[in-house]
Structure formats: C-alpha cells, structure tokens
Amino acid sequence: MTAFGAFCPFPIRLGEDLSAAEWLRIAQDTLSALRTAPFATMRLVGFGSVAPAIIGNQCMAGAAFIPTITVVDASNIDLEWPSTWLDDANAVHQTLITGAVIGYDESSSYVPLQFTILGPTKIRLTDTAGFNRNFTLRVTGHDMFSRRLNDYDADSIKQDTTKEQTPYAAVAYRAIQGMLGSLYSTELSGLVHAENLAQARLFGSLSRDIERLECNANPATAWEKAEDWQSLLRARTVDGRTGYDQIKYNLTGFAGLVKSHSTQIEQICTARLGSDFLSLAYNYGSLISDQPDPTCWEGGSVGYPGMDLGGGYWSSARSVFSVTVKNLPLYSTPDGIEKMGELIAELRNIVPAWADVRWYIDGAIFLLDISPLDVTPLS
Amino acid sequence: MTLPNGDPLWARTAAASTYGGVPTKKNYLDTPPINPETDVNASQYLRLTADVAAVARTASVFKCTLTCTDYLDVANNPLVNNAIASFYGPPVTYPGAAPPNYYPRITTVALGDYRISFSGSANTPDDFGVTANLYPTHGIPSASRTGNAPVALLTQISATDWTLRIVASSDGTTPYGDATVCLDFS
C-alpha cells in the first residue's frame, strides 16, 4: 500500500490505494461506534467506608483521568471527573455524564445500589448496605455525539482521484533512476535510494501544486481559497458552515435542487400574498433547477460544460420568476413593501445559499429575480 | 503480506499512534489537500485515529443472552444465544458447555449458580489472524424472569473465570435457575 508510504505521503490521495468508498466506510463505522461508546467502564472493589480501588478503562488515556473519589459517608461516595479531557489528538472535550449501568458483584448480599447524577462531571453512588462490595460501573455520556463525518472529511462528495492514481513521486522516482543509468544503485535502500526518493517527493509535490492551483480556481474544489470564494460568491452562511464546508454545501445543495423547490416557491407566494397571488411564470423552463445557459468568465459568452463550477454551470444570466398579483399598487406602499420583505426573506431560505432573491415591479406584474450567481464581484 | 500494527482491540493496548496517528504527523511540505474532493489530510486522519482509540478503550468484547433452565435442560447448562464477540461478526448460538473456538464456556455449578470461563479465549485471532488473549476485566449482567424479579451478580474470580449468580432481588439470596440473562463483557 503506497497511500501512506514513501511515494504518497499525506494528504492521502483517495483512489490511489485506499479508495474513497473505503475511507467513507472507515469513517462511518468509527462514528457509529463512537456514538454509543461508554465514556468509562470501571470495576470498583471494596465500596464502603473507604474509597474503593478502581480498575477501569476510560475513553481517554492516562491515569490522570481516573475520577476522584470522595467518601461522603458510610453509604455514599462521589466520583468526579475533570470537566474537560484530552483525546489522543489533544482535542479538548467536555465531560458530560448522562447515565450509568451497574453490574452487581456477588461478594455480598444483593442490595440495590443507586446512582445519582450530580452534574455533568459527577456521579454519586449510594450503598445502603454500607459494607464492602464490588461492582462494575459503566458510565455513559460524553460530548462526542457532536462528532460529524466532516470531522474526518468523509461525505458522499468524496471520490477517487483521477489525477494521481500512480503517485507523482513514484513516476519521478523511476524517471530519476532512468536518468542516472546503471552506474547508480537501484536498490530500495541506501544513500542513492534516499537521495532519489527525496528528489522524487519534491518533484511529486510540484505536480501536486499544479493540480492544487487548478482546484483552487474552482469554488467546488477549492480548499485554501474556499473562504475567498465564499466572499466572492456572497454565499450566505447556512447552518454554521464556513469556508470549504460552506462552499461545498452550497454547491452540492444547488446541484441537488429538486422540483419541489419550484412548488415551494408557489406555496410561499400563496401563503404570503394570499388571494393577491395569481400565478408564477419562469423565463427559463418551468423549474428553478432549469438554469440559464452557462457562461464563461466575462462578456456573457456561452461557455461549455467543462467550465461548470461543480454544482452546476455558473451563469451571468438570471432566473426570473414573474409573479402576477392583484392589487399591484399595494406593493408600492409601505405595507406592501414590508409584506414583500417577508416574502423575500422566506424565499431566501429555500433557494441555494449562493443564490439571491430580489423583486421589482414591472408593469402589471412584479418579478422575483433569483440569481444563481452574482457575477458583479468578478467583473 | 502485511499485518495490522499492534494488538487486537481486546488487548486494550491501542492508542492513536497504533493507527499511525501521532501529533507530529503532517502533510508533506505542509501542503494542504490538493483536491479536497479526493484527499484526506493529516489532521483529518489524526481525528479518526484518536476516535478509534477512544472507542477501543471501552468497547465491549463479548455480549450474549443466556437462557438458563436449570430444571429443564438435560445438561443443566445454559444456552448461549446470539453471542457476539469482537473477533467474529455474525451472532452465534451454542450450548454453554460446548462453545465454539475462542467463545467462553458457560456451565452450571448449582441452582442459579454459573461459571463463565474465558480460558478457551487465549490467543484469540482477529480478522487478520493477529492474536491476543480475550480476557475481559469488566462485566455487566442483567437478568429477567417470569415471576419474582431476579438480580444477576457477576464476579471475576481469576484472570479468565467469572461466577454468575442469579438471586431474588427481594432478599438477595434465593437462587433462581430459570432466568434470562444478558451479559456484556468489556
């Protein structure tokens, strides 16, 4: 496997050896297991008037995270964990105890043991028997339920690379070996190998730079420049996403537009305008997903599909929805304008995040102007 | 042939570093993903390894449901239903006294009194054939039966063996031999 090896160091190129589908499976199974994983499992030996000994497994590593035991009285002890803990990647997590399961030991007659959650970090165990007993305690709850597949950068947009199926560095390595000729060793060890490998990785990184430049030129595949694209496209923030996540979400959301969006627009117009709303017409097809013709960077000339932005062709033209209403003069009054403001605000929640909604009165109708891409900043 | 690094999960020796997740790991030449649609960078991989290590530390290694019928079963040994172990996926059902390889042997000692032995779980292989002793250190029992409520008491008596007693929850001593018991070892 070269994905983690000399010719293909991080970042891993999916599809080179480790496929995108395999990566998604690893990430999904890890996440699934994490959601229900106990925070701590421990055996307490000798519960009574003294603090029991603990034999435990914790989500976190190290003895420092074993709970502090406080003997309250002959029947009660408190277990308290630090309010935060570090995982192996040195990320800080909140301790958040939500429950416990108790397994009883037979070292004494059975008397129910009770637990009380005293806070996110503290649990009280009450033993009315009041003498030494052993039991196993499994504590549930940690803040890892907030973990998302995106933390592993694993979602369905992932795909196998079509560019570096053979590592660039491996190609360069063979080329260097060929250029050096038979006077130099071809063994996969020793100084010659080390020098060749270092140069090959350097040349490989140059090839990667070219590909990265290409990717950053496209908002759907930009990483370093994602926030610039977000600003440039005036992408609205949705669900707290920022940067690359935001752009990716917006573009995939746009590509995923379904027919119901057009229906939704009609429904919202009906709800907001009431009996004033008569009909809705479109300048491109009959659906919001029917986008205007694609456009190249400037000048309004029609582009070709290869110039799309990943989530659909970008366009300098706009989708315009013509809304026919009764009482049109009303919508020039303060009340009417306020009503339209509410309509626009609601529509903005359902159109793609990188689109925008405007309206203006044109003769006997008003126009809902939904632009899939505001090209003003590009010109 | 390449074998996985480290021990199987049930050895409880895994840390993020076992999976190649060390804090010093970084992208080559500090370059970010070339194409985020096709690449996984070092920090994302570190996140995965840290989470896998966290899960592995508290993961259950053996679960089953015992059907105890002391008065009905010819051998008086419980039936082990839907046994799920870390080393094998599909649930397995077996007579307690005749476990498949690496599964615990569960036998009756007296009425409501059972012995669970993991002595046959030495050198249990994972999917790659890497072995480690599957000797749990924690166990959670939960019993139920028709009639008076029981409670299950589980005690580790050696590195490999546990006792399980099922008694009346009302007095903590009256044995019951006709309960269903869920066991969860970690």
Largest sheet of chain B: 5 strands, antiparallel
Distance between the termini of chain B: 31 Å
Largest Cβ-defined interface: A-B, 77 and 59 residues
Kindly report the spatial arrangement of strands forming the biggest sheet of chain B. Answer: 4-3-2-12-9
Q: Report the average pLDDT across residues of chain A.
A: 76
| Helix-strand topology string of chain B | EHEEEEEEEEEEE
Integer-rounded radius of gyration of chain B: 21 Å
Spans where pLDDT lies below 50 across 5 or more residues of chain A: 252-259, 296-303, 307-313, 374-379
Dominant shape of chain B: elongated
Strand order in space, largest sheet of chain A: 3-2-10-7-6
Summed over residues and divided by their number, the pLDDT of chain B gives a mean of 89
What fraction of the residues of chain A are assigned to beta strands by DSSP? 15-25%
Shape of chain A: flat
Count of DSSP H/I helices of chain B: 1
Question: Main beta sheet of chain A: strand number and arrangement?
Answer: 5 strands, antiparallel
What features would you describe in this structure?
The complex is a heterodimer of chains A (379) and B (186). By secondary structure, chain A is of the alpha+beta class. Chain A is built from 7 helices and 14 strands. In chain A, the strands form 3 sheets. Chain A has a 5-stranded antiparallel sheet with strand order 3-2-10-7-6, with no helix packed on it. In chain A, a hairpin with a 2-residue loop joins strand 8 (113-119) and strand 9. In chain A, helix 2 packs across helix 3 (190-216) and helix 6 packs antiparallel against helix 7. Chain A is flat, with a radius of gyration of 31 Å. The mean pLDDT of chain B is 89. In chain B, a hairpin with a 2-residue loop joins strand 5 (105-110) and strand 6. By secondary structure, chain B is mainly β. Helix content of chain B is 9%, strand content 35%.
